[in-house]
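Model it.
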Amino acid sequence: MVQERTLPKFDAATVQITKEEGLLLYEDMVLGRTFEDKCAEMYYRGKMFGFVHLYNGQEAVSSGIIKGAMRPGEDFVCSTYRDHVHALSAGVPAKEVVAELFGKATGCSKGRGGSMHMFSKEHRLLGGYAFVAEGIPVAAGAAFQTKYRREVLGDPNADQVSACFFGDGAANNGQFFETLNMAALWKLPILFVVENNKWAIGMAHERATSQPEIYKKANAFNMVGVEVDGMDILAVRAVAQEAVARARAGEGPTLIEALTYRFRGHSLADPDELRSKAEKEFWFARDPIKKLAAYMVEQNLASHEELKAVDRKIQQVIDEAVKFAESSPEPDPSELYRFVFAEDE
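Modeled.
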């Protein structure tokens, strides 16, 4: 079985995108892909330990929503254990993400979080969460404080939107339903983004839920639900921009189901033997980075050489990030209990 659901159609001819916008999206996706490839290399070389879950193939979702529709550094982003690329799209420097993976003091979580727990107050990254659906109520809390500050405290600058990313498996979790209910009741400014990559670890999505079309679950809460081709960054961006505009206008949350696919196993410890070769080839042919590159060349928004220059630039960023992480100090044992509680600023 390759794909039971027909991928949503999207007319790219209706998209208005500038060269600068296109290059920004392309660069962010290449950053995510190159970063994750380097992670795999470092993991197998013994530079990092524990569970490491890579994002290869899903870049159009992170880049299309965070870089394409939100305000990085102002809006809130909440992730899962597959959080490296969300952190990068949110603006966390690659060197701080690598350092965190290496457990160094210069990491974005001061070496205390590792692969599954990226966090950055500065970049409004609310964290990566190891438990399935754990971040959904956290993101709703961030959205609630925005609404509270605006409507109760009268803060005119409180128009931030929260984006909560989670997988298809989380949509069967109780926290998903409870939080969507409250978000709809209170009209919270939040995007619930389901990255449906068809597999919850080793469980095929179609076997795990009575309603495989997750976006339709929004109907139970009188919430807007949208399905989008998660391998098409222009489609993701268009859907996200509309959802963000609704959220900022006080019209409440949106459930976005992005149909996507992870190109690697569930984690780097997964031999990836459960998925069929035909299924993988079907999705590999829809590589979102290659798709955007082809579109930009066809539309005369960029030349092949300009895109290759971006590739080279990103490779240099990643190489420098690894050097930074390798030369960074280990956390000081005397600070073992620091950051258990929030510190006064």
